[in-house]
Amino acid sequence: MSLKIRLARGGAKKRPFYSIVVADSRNPRDGRFIEKIGTYNPLLGKDDEKRVQYDAERAKHWLDRGALPTDRVARFFSAQGLVKWQHGNNPNKAKPGQKAQERAAEKAEKEAAANAPAEAPAEEAPAEETTAD
């Protein structure tokens, strides 16, 4: 059985409140869980001590048993040194899609084609003026 330490959503519409739970990874997000070990209230300020509350001893117990925290929960646990968390790096995420890249390439080609003939007569024109002097 693969265990996850994750957030289970509660609260009203547009007013989220999460419980930090240990659950089987096959169960749904807000479904059955084994143990509730804390809470997370994203509506509170980042410096508020009640924003994230959890039982560190129980978290360590479940981590020792092989439970894997989700990315958000690992971020919370890293504040107390229970888990080493580092920011993910996905440089491809910011790149535009394939169609957008094709359109940008076509646009660049059209601009290059439009600028090339316009530059050629502009270069010849000053040459004619200098010969007329």
From TrEMBL:
Assigned GO CC terms: cytoplasm; small ribosomal subunit
Region (Disordered): 84-133
Pfam families, alphabetized: Ribosomal_S16
GO molecular function: structural constituent of ribosome
Coiled-coil intervals: none
Keywords, alphabetical: Ribonucleoprotein, Ribosomal protein
Domain of life, source organism: Bacteria
Gene3D superfamilies xrefs: 3.30.1320.10
Biological process according to GO: translation
Compositionally biased tracts (Acidic residues): 121-133
Basic and acidic residues bias spans: 100-112
TM regions (residue ranges): none
Record PANTHER family: 30S RIBOSOMAL PROTEIN S16, SMALL RIBOSOMAL SUBUNIT PROTEIN BS16M
Family affiliation: Belongs to the bacterial ribosomal protein bS16 family.
HAMAP family: Ribosomal_bS16 (MF_00385)
This protein's name: Small ribosomal subunit protein bS16
Organism: Hyphococcus luteus
Lineage: Bacteria, Pseudomonadati, Pseudomonadota, Alphaproteobacteria, Parvularculales
